[in-house]
Amino acid sequence: MKVAAIKAPGGLDKLVIEERAQPVAGPGELLVRVRASSLNFHDFAVVAGMLPTADGRIPMSDGAGEVVAVGEGVAGFAPGDKVLSTFFPNWETGGPMLERLIGVPGDHADGFASEFVAMPARAFTRMPSGWSFAEAATLPCAALTAWRALMVEARIKPGDVVLTQGTGGVSIFALQLAKAAGATVISTSSSDEKLERLKALGADHLINYRQTPEWGAAAAALTGGRGVDVVVEIGGAGTLAQSVTGTRIGGHVSLIGVLAGFAGEVPTALIMSKNVAVKGVTVGSRQEQEEMIRALEVSTIRPVIDSTFPLEGIAAAFAHQVSQKHFGKICLEF
């Protein structure tokens, strides 16, 4: 079978296409013909060497495909089933615990840049009915992170005001999920063109954060000074202060990314005085993925896919991601 592998110490020029032996389904495992994957910042961190992994690691945490064979003792799956990976294959239900957060495909173990994979059945759920493999492959990391941030941790309800940052996969899914839940959405971006595309997806208010550096105060002003109920925070230290400024007293900040800095000043006095809850969110459990899929099937939400590349074009796909010219998800199809 054909795979993409990353050679130490990492870098897009260290991505190679190789032939490896096709695996077999052992006890408790599924053999899956992978049809699609999607790029996340986590995947880039792996291939760029920011997250060191074993030499020759097969990257990509997300995968969608068809069951080819079922190992001994597996129930609930059959050959021909369309399945979707889970980001944390050891996190089936409940809250996050260390033992549930290990084994991430494409990082701790080989991932989905491979024509075939053999993995435990618990590492998969069914795909949403009627979705393409590429559409489904956008869900395990980006969509589930947005789902847990809004529906599980912040528990949004109709009439809430949600602020999203940028036009990456998590942010666009957060916009779509928030609108489906009846929320008002304020979206930020540095590009007026991208803001117009967010408006077309349902964003109620738009802020260009380059033109409005104090966008937290601007967001609060859009709510009559009350502040937003929830911020989906992807920037981290570089944007947290503005997010807290824009949040209402007793509001919620779902911290799901550190794109603007791994460390920095935290507005502790403002967080305390406003009674703001800041909750770190790292994807979610298998049960939460199944719940999200059921919700998506009764909604009109469809992923926004910017572009697709073949497996052999994986380095070009990551280069496109680095350019930040994309809007939505970048996928691999093979």
TrEMBL record:
Molecular functions per Gene Ontology: oxidoreductase activity
Xref: InterPro entries: ADH-like_C, ADH-like_N, ER, GroES-like_sf, NAD(P)-bd_dom_sf, Zinc_ADH-like
All residue ranges annotated as the Enoyl reductase (ER) domain in the record: 10-332
Name the UniProt record assigns to this protein: NAD(P)-dependent alcohol dehydrogenase
